[in-house]
Protein backbone atom coordinates (compact mmCIF):
# COMPACT_ATOMS: atom_id res chain seq x y z
CA UNK A 1 0.00 0.00 0.00
CA UNK A 2 1.29 3.39 -0.95
CA UNK A 3 1.70 5.74 1.93
CA UNK A 4 -0.29 8.95 1.61
CA UNK A 5 1.78 12.12 1.51
CA UNK A 6 0.42 15.00 3.54
CA UNK A 7 1.03 18.38 1.98
CA UNK A 8 1.73 20.38 5.09
CA UNK A 9 4.30 23.12 5.68
CA UNK A 10 7.70 21.91 6.86
CA UNK A 11 7.71 20.93 10.50
CA UNK A 12 3.92 20.57 10.72
CA UNK A 13 2.67 17.14 11.74
CA UNK A 14 -0.26 15.56 9.96
CA UNK A 15 -2.07 15.63 13.27
CA UNK A 16 -1.97 19.42 13.65
CA UNK A 17 -5.03 19.87 11.45
CA UNK A 18 -6.79 17.03 13.20
CA UNK A 19 -6.11 18.70 16.52
CA UNK A 20 -7.56 21.99 15.26
CA UNK A 21 -10.80 20.40 14.11
CA UNK A 22 -11.12 18.39 17.33
CA UNK A 23 -13.89 20.69 18.65
CA UNK A 24 -15.92 19.91 15.55
CA UNK A 25 -15.38 16.13 15.85
CA UNK A 26 -16.34 16.17 19.54
CA UNK A 27 -19.34 18.38 18.84
CA UNK A 28 -20.51 16.17 16.01
CA UNK A 29 -20.41 13.06 18.19
CA UNK A 30 -22.05 14.79 21.15
CA UNK A 31 -24.63 17.11 19.61
CA UNK A 32 -25.44 15.47 16.28
CA UNK A 33 -24.68 11.75 16.20
CA UNK A 34 -25.65 10.99 19.79
CA UNK A 35 -29.07 12.69 19.62
CA UNK A 36 -29.81 11.06 16.27
CA UNK A 37 -29.12 7.56 17.54
CA UNK A 38 -30.81 8.32 20.84
CA UNK A 39 -33.85 9.75 19.09
CA UNK A 40 -34.29 6.55 17.09
CA UNK A 41 -33.83 4.38 20.17
CA UNK A 42 -36.30 6.37 22.30
CA UNK A 43 -38.73 6.28 19.37
CA UNK A 44 -38.97 2.52 19.81
CA UNK A 45 -40.08 2.82 23.42
CA UNK A 46 -42.75 4.21 25.65
CA UNK A 47 -40.95 6.69 27.87
CA UNK A 48 -41.86 9.63 30.10
CA UNK A 49 -38.41 10.58 31.46
CA UNK A 50 -39.41 9.25 34.92
CA UNK A 51 -40.29 5.56 34.71
CA UNK A 52 -37.90 3.21 32.88
CA UNK A 53 -38.44 3.02 29.13
CA UNK A 54 -40.56 0.15 27.85
CA UNK A 55 -39.67 -1.32 24.46
CA UNK A 56 -42.66 -1.25 22.13
CA UNK A 57 -41.03 -1.88 18.75
CA UNK A 58 -42.70 -0.02 15.92
CA UNK A 59 -45.90 0.77 17.84
CA UNK A 60 -45.21 4.51 17.84
CA UNK A 61 -44.85 4.47 14.08
CA UNK A 62 -48.04 2.45 13.72
CA UNK A 63 -50.02 4.87 15.86
CA UNK A 64 -48.81 7.75 13.70
CA UNK A 65 -50.72 6.21 10.79
CA UNK A 66 -54.00 6.53 12.65
CA UNK A 67 -53.20 9.83 14.38
CA UNK A 68 -55.34 12.56 12.79
CA UNK A 69 -53.22 15.27 14.40
CA UNK A 70 -50.11 13.87 12.77
CA UNK A 71 -51.69 13.60 9.33
CA UNK A 72 -53.08 17.11 9.59
CA UNK A 73 -49.70 18.48 10.77
CA UNK A 74 -47.89 16.72 7.95
CA UNK A 75 -50.14 18.21 5.28
CA UNK A 76 -49.95 21.68 6.86
CA UNK A 77 -46.15 21.48 6.98
CA UNK A 78 -45.84 20.38 3.35
CA UNK A 79 -48.28 23.05 2.19
CA UNK A 80 -46.43 25.69 4.21
CA UNK A 81 -43.04 24.77 2.73
CA UNK A 82 -44.43 24.43 -0.80
CA UNK A 83 -45.85 27.96 -0.71
CA UNK A 84 -43.19 29.74 1.32
CA UNK A 85 -39.95 28.44 -0.21
CA UNK A 86 -40.55 29.34 -3.89
CA UNK A 87 -41.98 32.75 -2.92
CA UNK A 88 -39.07 33.51 -0.64
CA UNK A 89 -36.50 32.50 -3.26
CA UNK A 90 -38.21 34.62 -5.92
CA UNK A 91 -38.49 37.70 -3.70
CA UNK A 92 -34.90 37.35 -2.47
CA UNK A 93 -33.49 36.92 -5.95
CA UNK A 94 -35.40 39.87 -7.39
CA UNK A 95 -34.38 42.09 -4.49
CA UNK A 96 -30.76 40.98 -4.81
CA UNK A 97 -30.83 41.91 -8.50
CA UNK A 98 -32.10 45.40 -7.63
CA UNK A 99 -29.59 45.81 -4.82
CA UNK A 100 -26.72 44.77 -7.07
CA UNK A 101 -27.03 48.04 -8.98
CA UNK A 102 -24.17 50.49 -8.62
CA UNK A 103 -26.08 53.57 -7.58
CA UNK A 104 -25.51 56.21 -4.97
CA UNK A 105 -26.84 55.26 -1.54
CA UNK A 106 -27.32 51.59 -2.37
CA UNK A 107 -25.76 50.67 0.98
CA UNK A 108 -28.65 52.33 2.80
CA UNK A 109 -31.17 50.25 0.84
CA UNK A 110 -29.20 47.05 1.45
CA UNK A 111 -29.28 47.72 5.17
CA UNK A 112 -32.94 48.75 5.21
CA UNK A 113 -34.11 45.66 3.37
CA UNK A 114 -31.98 43.39 5.53
CA UNK A 115 -33.22 44.71 8.87
CA UNK A 116 -36.42 42.60 9.20
CA UNK A 117 -34.46 39.37 9.03
CA UNK A 118 -32.22 40.24 11.96
CA UNK A 119 -35.30 40.07 14.15
CA UNK A 120 -36.39 36.48 13.49
CA UNK A 121 -39.50 35.30 15.29
CA UNK A 122 -38.54 37.64 18.10
CA UNK A 123 -41.53 38.34 20.29
CA UNK A 124 -41.59 42.02 19.37
CA UNK A 125 -42.04 41.01 15.76
CA UNK A 126 -44.77 38.59 16.72
CA UNK A 127 -46.62 41.23 18.71
CA UNK A 128 -46.30 43.55 15.75
CA UNK A 129 -47.62 40.91 13.38
CA UNK A 130 -50.58 40.25 15.67
CA UNK A 131 -51.57 43.90 15.54
CA UNK A 132 -51.03 44.13 11.81
CA UNK A 133 -53.36 41.23 11.09
CA UNK A 134 -56.08 41.54 13.75
CA UNK A 135 -59.53 42.36 12.41
CA UNK A 136 -59.03 46.11 12.93
CA UNK A 137 -55.30 45.96 12.24
CA UNK A 138 -53.11 47.80 9.80
CA UNK A 139 -53.43 45.32 6.95
CA UNK A 140 -57.22 45.44 6.98
CA UNK A 141 -57.14 49.23 7.27
CA UNK A 142 -54.98 49.39 4.16
CA UNK A 143 -57.26 46.88 2.43
CA UNK A 144 -60.32 48.98 3.25
CA UNK A 145 -58.60 52.05 1.80
CA UNK A 146 -58.30 50.03 -1.39
CA UNK A 147 -62.00 49.23 -1.17
CA UNK A 148 -61.64 45.58 -0.18
CA UNK A 149 -63.62 44.13 2.70
CA UNK A 150 -61.66 43.27 5.86
CA UNK A 151 -60.34 39.74 6.19
CA UNK A 152 -60.47 37.74 9.43
CA UNK A 153 -56.86 36.64 9.08
CA UNK A 154 -56.55 34.79 12.36
CA UNK A 155 -60.02 33.28 12.41
CA UNK A 156 -60.11 31.78 8.95
CA UNK A 157 -58.45 28.35 8.59
CA UNK A 158 -57.68 29.12 4.93
CA UNK A 159 -56.06 32.48 5.66
CA UNK A 160 -54.17 31.96 8.92
CA UNK A 161 -51.31 30.09 7.30
CA UNK A 162 -50.61 33.12 5.12
CA UNK A 163 -50.09 35.25 8.21
CA UNK A 164 -47.26 32.89 9.16
CA UNK A 165 -45.95 32.69 5.59
CA UNK A 166 -45.95 36.49 5.25
CA UNK A 167 -43.88 36.86 8.41
CA UNK A 168 -41.21 34.52 7.09
CA UNK A 169 -41.42 36.13 3.66
CA UNK A 170 -40.91 39.57 5.20
CA UNK A 171 -37.62 38.23 6.55
CA UNK A 172 -36.07 37.45 3.18
CA UNK A 173 -32.77 39.15 4.06
CA UNK A 174 -30.48 36.19 4.66
CA UNK A 175 -31.43 34.40 1.43
CA UNK A 176 -31.21 37.72 -0.38
CA UNK A 177 -27.73 38.43 0.89
CA UNK A 178 -26.46 35.05 -0.30
CA UNK A 179 -27.83 35.83 -3.75
CA UNK A 180 -26.26 39.28 -3.63
CA UNK A 181 -22.87 37.78 -2.76
CA UNK A 182 -23.15 35.40 -5.69
CA UNK A 183 -24.23 38.15 -8.08
CA UNK A 184 -21.14 40.17 -7.20
CA UNK A 185 -18.98 37.15 -8.01
CA UNK A 186 -20.20 36.94 -11.62
CA UNK A 187 -17.39 38.25 -13.85
CA UNK A 188 -18.30 41.62 -15.40
CA UNK A 189 -16.68 40.61 -18.68
CA UNK A 190 -19.56 38.22 -19.36
CA UNK A 191 -22.06 41.05 -19.41
CA UNK A 192 -19.76 43.31 -21.41
CA UNK A 193 -19.25 40.61 -24.03
CA UNK A 194 -23.00 40.03 -24.20
CA UNK A 195 -23.61 43.75 -24.64
CA UNK A 196 -21.13 43.86 -27.51
CA UNK A 197 -23.02 40.98 -29.11
CA UNK A 198 -26.21 43.01 -28.87
CA UNK A 199 -27.77 41.09 -26.04
CA UNK A 200 -30.43 43.01 -24.09
CA UNK A 201 -30.45 43.04 -20.29
CA UNK A 202 -33.52 40.79 -20.22
CA UNK A 203 -31.78 38.13 -22.28
CA UNK A 204 -28.55 38.61 -20.36
CA UNK A 205 -30.46 37.67 -17.21
CA UNK A 206 -31.55 34.32 -18.64
CA UNK A 207 -28.35 33.64 -20.58
CA UNK A 208 -25.78 34.72 -17.98
CA UNK A 209 -27.19 35.55 -14.54
CA UNK A 210 -29.45 32.55 -13.97
CA UNK A 211 -26.94 29.90 -15.15
CA UNK A 212 -24.20 31.51 -13.05
CA UNK A 213 -26.46 31.49 -10.01
CA UNK A 214 -27.50 27.85 -10.31
CA UNK A 215 -25.27 26.78 -7.43
CA UNK A 216 -26.53 29.34 -4.92
CA UNK A 217 -30.14 28.95 -5.96
CA UNK A 218 -29.77 25.29 -5.07
CA UNK A 219 -28.08 26.00 -1.74
CA UNK A 220 -30.79 28.51 -0.81
CA UNK A 221 -33.52 26.13 -1.94
CA UNK A 222 -32.17 23.32 0.23
CA UNK A 223 -31.52 25.50 3.30
CA UNK A 224 -34.94 27.17 3.11
CA UNK A 225 -36.75 23.88 2.56
CA UNK A 226 -35.09 22.35 5.60
CA UNK A 227 -35.95 25.39 7.71
CA UNK A 228 -39.56 25.46 6.49
CA UNK A 229 -40.19 21.75 7.06
CA UNK A 230 -39.14 22.04 10.71
CA UNK A 231 -40.92 25.34 11.38
CA UNK A 232 -41.92 25.77 14.99
CA UNK A 233 -41.36 29.32 16.28
CA UNK A 234 -43.52 31.38 13.96
CA UNK A 235 -46.77 29.37 14.12
CA UNK A 236 -46.25 28.62 17.83
CA UNK A 237 -46.05 32.31 18.65
CA UNK A 238 -48.43 33.73 16.04
CA UNK A 239 -51.35 31.35 15.92
CA UNK A 240 -50.64 28.59 18.41
CA UNK A 241 -51.37 26.22 15.54
CA UNK A 242 -54.99 27.32 15.11
CA UNK A 243 -57.63 27.91 13.95
CA UNK A 244 -58.74 24.30 13.55
CA UNK A 245 -55.07 23.21 13.42
CA UNK A 246 -54.70 24.97 10.08
CA UNK A 247 -51.22 26.20 11.07
CA UNK A 248 -50.24 23.22 13.20
CA UNK A 249 -46.83 22.05 11.96
CA UNK A 250 -45.04 18.78 12.65
CA UNK A 251 -42.53 20.78 14.71
CA UNK A 252 -45.36 21.91 16.98
CA UNK A 253 -46.75 18.39 17.26
CA UNK A 254 -43.35 17.12 18.43
CA UNK A 255 -43.19 19.89 21.03
CA UNK A 256 -46.73 19.24 22.25
CA UNK A 257 -46.24 15.49 22.60
CA UNK A 258 -43.06 16.08 24.55
CA UNK A 259 -43.95 18.99 26.81
CA UNK A 260 -47.61 20.00 26.70
CA UNK A 261 -49.13 16.60 27.36
CA UNK A 262 -47.68 14.07 29.81
CA UNK A 263 -44.18 13.75 28.32
CA UNK A 264 -44.79 11.36 25.48
CA UNK A 265 -41.06 11.11 24.72
CA UNK A 266 -41.29 7.86 22.75
CA UNK A 267 -43.91 9.17 20.35
CA UNK A 268 -42.31 12.64 20.07
CA UNK A 269 -38.97 11.11 19.10
CA UNK A 270 -40.57 8.74 16.61
CA UNK A 271 -42.33 11.68 14.94
CA UNK A 272 -39.10 13.71 14.85
CA UNK A 273 -37.36 10.74 13.25
CA UNK A 274 -40.07 10.58 10.58
CA UNK A 275 -39.61 14.30 10.00
CA UNK A 276 -35.89 13.73 9.61
CA UNK A 277 -36.47 10.99 7.05
CA UNK A 278 -38.94 13.22 5.21
CA UNK A 279 -36.50 16.13 5.08
CA UNK A 280 -33.67 13.85 3.96
CA UNK A 281 -35.89 12.43 1.23
CA UNK A 282 -36.90 15.87 -0.04
CA UNK A 283 -33.30 17.10 -0.01
CA UNK A 284 -32.15 13.83 -1.59
CA UNK A 285 -34.64 14.26 -4.43
CA UNK A 286 -33.41 17.83 -4.96
CA UNK A 287 -29.82 16.61 -5.19
CA UNK A 288 -30.78 13.77 -7.53
CA UNK A 289 -32.75 16.05 -9.85
CA UNK A 290 -29.96 18.63 -10.16
CA UNK A 291 -27.34 15.95 -10.72
CA UNK A 292 -29.51 14.39 -13.41
CA UNK A 293 -29.95 17.78 -15.07
CA UNK A 294 -26.22 18.42 -14.96
CA UNK A 295 -25.56 15.12 -16.67
CA UNK A 296 -28.06 15.96 -19.42
CA UNK A 297 -26.20 19.12 -20.21
CA UNK A 298 -22.91 17.33 -20.78
CA UNK B 1 -29.99 59.78 -13.86
CA UNK B 2 -33.37 59.42 -15.53
CA UNK B 3 -32.56 55.78 -16.18
CA UNK B 4 -31.92 55.17 -12.51
CA UNK B 5 -35.04 56.91 -11.25
CA UNK B 6 -37.37 53.88 -11.54
CA UNK B 7 -34.84 51.84 -9.59
CA UNK B 8 -34.83 54.39 -6.77
CA UNK B 9 -38.63 54.43 -6.74
CA UNK B 10 -38.90 50.64 -6.56
CA UNK B 11 -36.26 50.37 -3.85
CA UNK B 12 -37.83 53.14 -1.80
CA UNK B 13 -41.25 51.52 -2.00
CA UNK B 14 -39.77 48.17 -0.96
CA UNK B 15 -37.88 49.72 1.94
CA UNK B 16 -41.05 51.49 3.02
CA UNK B 17 -43.08 48.27 2.96
CA UNK B 18 -40.49 46.35 4.95
CA UNK B 19 -39.76 49.09 7.47
CA UNK B 20 -43.22 50.60 7.98
CA UNK B 21 -44.42 47.85 10.35
CA UNK B 22 -41.49 48.61 12.62
CA UNK B 23 -42.13 52.34 12.51
CA UNK B 24 -45.76 51.66 13.29
CA UNK B 25 -44.76 49.47 16.24
CA UNK B 26 -42.70 52.28 17.76
CA UNK B 27 -45.55 54.73 17.22
CA UNK B 28 -48.06 52.30 18.74
CA UNK B 29 -46.08 52.20 21.97
CA UNK B 30 -47.44 55.70 22.68
CA UNK B 31 -51.02 55.00 21.68
CA UNK B 32 -54.13 54.09 23.66
CA UNK B 33 -55.80 50.76 22.94
CA UNK B 34 -58.52 52.31 20.79
CA UNK B 35 -56.04 54.42 18.85
CA UNK B 36 -53.93 51.35 18.04
CA UNK B 37 -56.78 49.59 16.31
CA UNK B 38 -58.30 52.59 14.59
CA UNK B 39 -55.35 54.16 12.80
CA UNK B 40 -52.95 52.81 10.22
CA UNK B 41 -50.85 55.96 10.52
CA UNK B 42 -47.83 55.42 12.73
CA UNK B 43 -47.70 58.85 14.43
CA UNK B 44 -49.36 58.81 17.85
CA UNK B 45 -51.55 61.78 18.89
CA UNK B 46 -49.25 62.56 21.77
CA UNK B 47 -45.92 61.36 23.06
CA UNK B 48 -45.72 60.33 26.68
CA UNK B 49 -42.39 58.75 27.46
CA UNK B 50 -43.58 57.56 30.88
CA UNK B 51 -44.93 54.43 29.16
CA UNK B 52 -41.33 53.34 28.72
CA UNK B 53 -40.62 53.81 32.41
CA UNK B 54 -43.48 51.50 33.36
CA UNK B 55 -42.60 49.08 30.57
CA UNK B 56 -39.11 48.77 32.02
CA UNK B 57 -40.67 47.52 35.27
CA UNK B 58 -42.56 44.80 33.30
CA UNK B 59 -45.60 42.93 34.59
CA UNK B 60 -43.39 40.20 36.06
CA UNK B 61 -41.51 40.33 39.39
CA UNK B 62 -38.30 41.48 37.67
CA UNK B 63 -37.33 44.52 35.61
CA UNK B 64 -36.23 44.38 32.02
CA UNK B 65 -32.69 45.07 33.23
CA UNK B 66 -32.77 41.70 34.98
CA UNK B 67 -33.85 39.89 31.81
CA UNK B 68 -31.27 41.75 29.74
CA UNK B 69 -28.59 40.54 32.17
CA UNK B 70 -29.85 36.96 31.84
CA UNK B 71 -29.82 37.23 28.06
CA UNK B 72 -26.30 38.61 27.98
CA UNK B 73 -25.11 35.84 30.31
CA UNK B 74 -26.11 33.47 27.52
CA UNK B 75 -25.20 35.62 24.52
CA UNK B 76 -21.71 36.83 25.48
CA UNK B 77 -20.13 33.42 26.20
CA UNK B 78 -21.88 31.99 23.16
CA UNK B 79 -20.51 34.65 20.83
CA UNK B 80 -16.97 34.18 22.14
CA UNK B 81 -17.08 30.38 22.08
CA UNK B 82 -18.76 30.12 18.68
CA UNK B 83 -16.33 32.55 17.03
CA UNK B 84 -13.25 30.95 18.57
CA UNK B 85 -14.21 27.34 17.85
CA UNK B 86 -15.38 28.10 14.30
CA UNK B 87 -12.14 29.94 13.50
CA UNK B 88 -10.01 27.06 14.83
CA UNK B 89 -11.91 24.43 12.87
CA UNK B 90 -11.96 26.51 9.68
CA UNK B 91 -8.22 27.12 10.07
CA UNK B 92 -7.63 23.37 10.35
CA UNK B 93 -9.67 22.64 7.22
CA UNK B 94 -8.33 25.53 5.17
CA UNK B 95 -4.62 25.32 5.92
CA UNK B 96 -3.71 21.76 6.93
CA UNK B 97 -3.79 18.29 5.50
CA UNK B 98 -4.65 15.43 7.80
CA UNK B 99 -6.02 11.89 7.82
CA UNK B 100 -9.70 11.56 6.89
CA UNK B 101 -9.92 15.24 5.96
CA UNK B 102 -12.42 14.63 3.15
CA UNK B 103 -14.58 12.50 5.41
CA UNK B 104 -14.71 15.13 8.15
CA UNK B 105 -15.44 17.86 5.64
CA UNK B 106 -18.34 15.82 4.32
CA UNK B 107 -19.61 15.46 7.90
CA UNK B 108 -19.41 19.23 8.32
CA UNK B 109 -21.46 19.76 5.18
CA UNK B 110 -23.96 17.07 6.16
CA UNK B 111 -24.36 18.72 9.56
CA UNK B 112 -25.53 21.89 7.83
CA UNK B 113 -28.40 19.97 6.34
CA UNK B 114 -29.48 18.18 9.51
CA UNK B 115 -32.82 19.32 10.91
CA UNK B 116 -32.21 20.67 14.41
CA UNK B 117 -35.64 19.67 15.65
CA UNK B 118 -34.64 15.99 15.73
CA UNK B 119 -31.78 16.68 18.13
CA UNK B 120 -33.70 18.92 20.53
CA UNK B 121 -35.70 16.19 22.31
CA UNK B 122 -32.84 13.72 22.96
CA UNK B 123 -30.64 16.61 24.15
CA UNK B 124 -33.37 17.62 26.59
CA UNK B 125 -33.42 14.07 27.97
CA UNK B 126 -29.62 14.08 28.26
CA UNK B 127 -29.41 17.46 30.01
CA UNK B 128 -32.15 16.41 32.40
CA UNK B 129 -30.17 13.21 33.23
CA UNK B 130 -27.10 15.38 33.90
CA UNK B 131 -29.15 17.66 36.17
CA UNK B 132 -28.33 20.69 34.04
CA UNK B 133 -31.86 21.75 33.15
CA UNK B 134 -32.73 25.25 34.30
CA UNK B 135 -29.10 26.32 33.90
CA UNK B 136 -27.54 28.10 30.93
CA UNK B 137 -25.17 25.20 30.20
CA UNK B 138 -27.45 23.48 27.62
CA UNK B 139 -27.84 26.79 25.79
CA UNK B 140 -24.14 27.75 25.77
CA UNK B 141 -22.19 24.47 25.58
CA UNK B 142 -22.90 23.54 21.94
CA UNK B 143 -21.36 26.86 20.81
CA UNK B 144 -17.92 25.70 21.98
CA UNK B 145 -17.89 22.91 19.38
CA UNK B 146 -18.20 24.85 16.12
CA UNK B 147 -21.82 23.71 15.94
CA UNK B 148 -22.79 25.91 12.96
CA UNK B 149 -21.36 24.34 9.82
CA UNK B 150 -22.35 27.47 7.93
CA UNK B 151 -19.94 29.61 9.98
CA UNK B 152 -17.02 27.24 9.43
CA UNK B 153 -17.83 27.17 5.74
CA UNK B 154 -17.83 30.98 5.39
CA UNK B 155 -14.57 31.22 7.35
CA UNK B 156 -12.89 28.57 5.18
CA UNK B 157 -13.76 30.60 2.08
CA UNK B 158 -12.10 33.63 3.65
CA UNK B 159 -9.00 31.71 4.71
CA UNK B 160 -8.58 30.49 1.14
CA UNK B 161 -8.43 34.07 -0.12
CA UNK B 162 -5.41 34.83 2.07
CA UNK B 163 -2.19 33.91 0.23
CA UNK B 164 -0.36 30.96 1.77
CA UNK B 165 2.94 32.85 1.50
CA UNK B 166 1.75 34.93 4.43
CA UNK B 167 1.69 31.91 6.78
CA UNK B 168 5.04 30.75 5.44
CA UNK B 169 6.61 34.13 6.10
CA UNK B 170 5.21 34.01 9.61
CA UNK B 171 6.67 30.53 10.13
CA UNK B 172 10.09 31.60 8.91
CA UNK B 173 9.90 34.42 11.45
CA UNK B 174 9.34 31.77 14.10
CA UNK B 175 5.57 31.89 14.55
CA UNK B 176 3.97 28.65 15.66
CA UNK B 177 0.67 27.34 14.28
CA UNK B 178 -1.50 29.29 16.69
CA UNK B 179 0.52 32.48 16.66
CA UNK B 180 0.41 32.56 12.86
CA UNK B 181 -3.37 32.34 13.13
CA UNK B 182 -3.79 35.05 15.75
CA UNK B 183 -1.25 37.61 14.53
CA UNK B 184 -1.20 37.09 10.78
CA UNK B 185 -4.37 35.42 9.52
CA UNK B 186 -7.01 36.71 11.90
CA UNK B 187 -6.59 40.36 10.88
CA UNK B 188 -7.06 39.32 7.24
CA UNK B 189 -10.35 37.54 7.84
CA UNK B 190 -11.82 40.02 10.29
CA UNK B 191 -15.04 40.74 8.34
CA UNK B 192 -15.89 37.05 8.35
CA UNK B 193 -15.25 36.73 12.08
CA UNK B 194 -17.47 39.76 12.68
CA UNK B 195 -20.19 38.09 10.61
CA UNK B 196 -19.98 34.94 12.70
CA UNK B 197 -20.11 36.93 15.94
CA UNK B 198 -23.04 39.07 14.77
CA UNK B 199 -25.03 36.09 13.49
CA UNK B 200 -24.49 34.25 16.76
CA UNK B 201 -25.59 37.33 18.68
CA UNK B 202 -28.76 37.86 16.65
CA UNK B 203 -29.78 34.20 16.56
CA UNK B 204 -29.27 33.83 20.28
CA UNK B 205 -31.28 36.98 21.03
CA UNK B 206 -34.11 35.54 18.94
CA UNK B 207 -33.83 31.96 20.12
CA UNK B 208 -37.07 30.84 21.69
CA UNK B 209 -37.45 27.06 21.52
CA UNK B 210 -34.21 26.19 23.35
CA UNK B 211 -34.73 28.47 26.38
CA UNK B 212 -38.43 27.55 26.42
CA UNK B 213 -37.49 23.91 26.86
CA UNK B 214 -34.40 24.19 29.04
CA UNK B 215 -35.19 27.08 31.43
CA UNK B 216 -38.02 26.73 33.92
CA UNK B 217 -37.68 29.42 36.59
CA UNK B 218 -38.84 32.93 35.72
CA UNK B 219 -35.84 34.33 37.58
CA UNK B 220 -33.54 32.87 34.91
CA UNK B 221 -35.69 33.73 31.88
CA UNK B 222 -33.97 35.43 28.99
CA UNK B 223 -35.74 38.37 27.38
CA UNK B 224 -37.56 36.34 24.73
CA UNK B 225 -39.32 34.20 27.34
CA UNK B 226 -40.00 37.15 29.66
CA UNK B 227 -41.78 39.01 26.88
CA UNK B 228 -43.87 35.96 26.10
CA UNK B 229 -44.78 35.64 29.77
CA UNK B 230 -45.89 39.29 29.83
CA UNK B 231 -48.15 38.76 26.84
CA UNK B 232 -49.65 35.60 28.30
CA UNK B 233 -50.27 37.09 31.73
CA UNK B 234 -52.10 40.20 30.54
CA UNK B 235 -55.47 40.25 28.81
CA UNK B 236 -56.91 42.18 25.88
CA UNK B 237 -58.10 44.99 28.19
CA UNK B 238 -54.58 45.64 29.43
CA UNK B 239 -52.81 48.75 28.16
CA UNK B 240 -51.26 47.28 25.04
CA UNK B 241 -48.83 50.18 24.65
CA UNK B 242 -46.86 48.88 27.65
CA UNK B 243 -46.39 45.46 26.09
CA UNK B 244 -45.43 47.10 22.80
CA UNK B 245 -42.99 49.41 24.58
CA UNK B 246 -41.41 46.36 26.22
CA UNK B 247 -40.98 44.68 22.88
CA UNK B 248 -39.50 47.85 21.37
CA UNK B 249 -36.95 47.98 24.20
CA UNK B 250 -36.26 44.30 23.56
CA UNK B 251 -35.35 45.01 19.94
CA UNK B 252 -32.74 47.64 20.78
CA UNK B 253 -29.72 45.34 21.33
CA UNK B 254 -30.21 43.49 18.02
CA UNK B 255 -30.73 46.65 16.01
CA UNK B 256 -27.82 48.39 17.75
CA UNK B 257 -25.41 45.52 17.12
CA UNK B 258 -26.50 45.28 13.52
CA UNK B 259 -26.14 49.04 12.97
CA UNK B 260 -22.75 49.03 14.64
CA UNK B 261 -21.36 46.05 12.70
CA UNK B 262 -23.42 46.61 9.55
CA UNK B 263 -20.59 47.63 7.28
CA UNK B 264 -18.24 44.81 8.18
CA UNK B 265 -21.10 42.38 8.46
CA UNK B 266 -22.66 42.94 5.04
CA UNK B 267 -19.26 43.15 3.35
CA UNK B 268 -18.17 40.06 5.31
CA UNK B 269 -20.83 38.08 3.53
CA UNK B 270 -21.07 39.78 0.15
CA UNK B 271 -17.33 40.20 -0.43
CA UNK B 272 -16.60 36.74 0.84
CA UNK B 273 -17.37 34.87 -2.30
CA UNK B 274 -19.30 32.23 -0.39
CA UNK B 275 -20.16 30.82 -3.76
CA UNK B 276 -16.46 29.97 -4.19
Break the fold down into its secondary structure elements and pairings.
The complex is a heterodimer of chains A (about 300) and B (about 280).
Chain A: H1 16-20, H2 22-43, E1 45-46, E2 54-55, H3 59-65, H4 68-99, H5 106-114, H6 123-133, H7 138-145, H8 160-170, H9 173-185, H10 188-196, H11 201-229, H12 233-238, H13 250-260, H14 265-297
Antiparallel strand pairs in A: 1-2
Helix pairs in contact in A: 2-14, 4-8, 4-9, 4-11, 4-13, 9-11, 11-14, 13-14
Chain B: H1 5-28, H2 33-38, H3 50-57, H4 64-95, H5 101-112, H6 116-129, H7 137-140, H8 149-161, H9 164-172, H10 177-188, H11 190-206, H12 209-214, H13 223-233, H14 240-270
Structure commentary:
- The complex is a heterodimer of chains A (298) and B (276).
- The radius of gyration of chain A is 24 Å and the shape is globular.
- The relative contact order of chain A is 0.13.
- Chain A has 14 helices and two strands; from the N terminus they run ααββαααααααααααα.
- Chain A is an all-alpha fold and 298 residues long.
- Chain A has a single domain, classed as MetI-like (MetI-like fold), CATH 1.10.3720.10.
- In chain A, strands 1-2 form a two-stranded antiparallel sheet.
- Chain B is mostly helical and 276 residues long.
- Chain B folds into two domains: 1-48, no CATH class; 59-270, MetI-like fold.
- Chain B has helices spanning 5-28, 33-38, 50-57, 64-95, 101-112, 116-129, 137-140, 149-161, 164-172, 177-188, 190-206, 209-214, 223-233, 240-270.
- In chain B, helix 5 (101-112) packs across helix 8 (149-161) and helix 9 packs across helix 10.
- The two termini of chain B are 34 Å apart.
- Mean pLDDT of chain B is 85; it is low at 272-276.
- Chains A and B meet through helix 1, helix 2, helix 4, helix 5 and helix 6 of A and helix 1, helix 2, helix 4, helix 5 and helix 6 of B.
